[in-house]
Amino acid sequence: MKKVYCENCKYSGIFKKKKKLYFYCKLGNVFEDASNLDNNCKFYKRKWWKFWVKEDKRKILKGAQPKTDPGPKPDTIPINSTSIKEYLDGTIRRWRKNLKFFKNEEDKLMAKHYIDAFQSVRVSLLGETLAENNEYR
What pTM value is reported for the model? Predict the structure, then answer.
């Protein structure tokens, strides 16, 4: 038996349903045999080696849905106290580091306000401030 590869996505699989072999690709195109060609996927034959992927078989049997891009993940603050402390310390250190590189007074003032805001959140949650000499590593 020859393995069939999709020319577009360079991937294929095979599964058996009701004693019949079906070829498929990542784009969701399913073929009963290699002679059935679709407009979107042109196939060429190669030697078959046994290959079974259960997850892909389930997707094809249910009907493959096109993947949608979920977009960027929202900025979230972590839940437990150690990760909150690390998050706040990292942002305070980062703003202190950036403060050295700002040239005009407005940017320096903005950075100081951010540092003060994160320090006040750190004091209200943890009861302590980050020392001035604790620089960004």
Answer: 0.40
Q: At what angle do helices 105-126 and 81-101 cross, to 10 degrees?
A: 160
Tell me how far apart the terminal alpha carbons of the chain are, to the nearest angstrom.
59
Nearest to 5 by CA among 55, 29, 21: 29
- DSSP track, 25-46: -TT--EESSTT---SS--EEEE
**pLDDT tens track, the chain, 137 positions:** 455 555 555 555 655 566 666 666 655 565 555 444 343 344 333 333 333 344 455 555 555 555 566 666 666 655 677 788 888 888 888 888 888 888 899 989 999 999 999 999 888 888 877 777 665 44
Say if CB 105 and CB 113 are below 8 A apart. no
Q: Which residues, 6 or more positions from 126, have their beta carbon under 8 angstroms from its beta carbon?
A: 81, 84, 85, 88
CB 127 within 8 A of CB 94: no
For tokens 């620089």, what's the residue?
Answer: 135
Three-class DSSP category at 113: helix
Helix, strand or coil, per DSSP, at residue 6: strand
